[in-house]
Design goal:
Blueprint: H1 8-22, H2 52-64, E1 71-72, H3 74-79, E2 83-84, E3 91-102, E4 108-121, E5 125-126, H4 148-156, E6 161-163, E7 170-172, E8 177-180, H5 189-208
Parallel strand pairs: 6-8
Antiparallel strand pairs: 1-4, 2-5, 3-4, 7-8
Domain N-terminal: 7-120
Organism: Thioclava dalianensis
GO molecular function: single-stranded DNA binding
């Protein structure tokens, strides 16, 4: 049986939709701290990615909490003296270009193409020069305060909510608990309660449709 052809356009669309459905999109993270940054993703040589690759790599950096903006292929990491840690998963980026093809009339035409290839973040690679690594931004207390009415509303849902200094918001099926960063580290209270509402919905989905989530995952 022939291998199924990789559809670059479907992959791009599905990855962006999945990131939006799974949590707050990385370009809208409403709290301070953590590895994901709004800086443009860069190739190994410092050249900035463009177009849809920015969104895809932002999404991956947010999900994995990467600090570095640099991405590279397995071979590029090796050329720089580094090596990808065992078990690390690559991200997909897309190269757009054109090739010349002769049409039925014998004329040369530029035919556009899209080719996918795999890259790793510098945080997944050991042995690179020091400038490839960036320390995560520490959470900052902005003094944001909670709305008592909204606090009472979420308390009434019965969802178990843990708050720690970890700059991530998620619902864990394994523990059946929601994790939130401190509200003071959010830019606005609306961002805090909007994020909490999203994680509470995941909590409710698991309770209503447990078969949809057969294995412990973090959402």
């Amino acid at each position: 049986m022939a291998a199924e052809k990789f559809d670059v356009y479907s992959h791009v669309t599905n990855q962006i939709i999945a990131q939006i459905e799974a949590g707050t999109p990385p370009w809208r993270k409403p709290w301070t701290g953590g590895g994901a940054s709004v800086s443009l993703p860069e190739r190994f040589n410092g050249e900035a990615y463009r177009g849809i690759n920015i969104l895809m790599l932002w999404a991956t950096a947010m999900a994995k909490d990467y600090s570095s903006a640099r991405w590279m292929t397995f071979n590029q990491a090796k050329q720089l003296g580094g090596h990808v840690r065992k078990g690390e998963k690559s991200a997909t980026v897309v190269k757009y270009g054109t090739v010349e093809r002769e049409d039925d009339n014998g004329e040369e035409r530029q035919i556009p193409y899209a080719k996918a290839y795999r890259v790793f973040n510098a945080d997944q690679i050991e042995g690179l020069p020091a400038e490839f690594y960036i320390l995560p931004d520490p959470p900052r207390d902005l003094g944001t305060v909670a709305d008592p009415a909204l606090e009472a509303f979420f308390a009434a849902t019965g969802a178990q909510i843990d708050t720690t200094e970890e700059p991530r918001a998620y619902y864990s099926i394994k523990t059946d608990r929601i994790h939130m960063p401190p509200i003071g580290t959010f830019y606005r209270a609306a961002g805090y309660f909007g994020t909490l509402a999203h994680e509470t919905i995941h909590n409710a989905e698991v309770r209503i449709m447990p078969r949809r989530y057969p294995a412990p995952v973090v959402l």
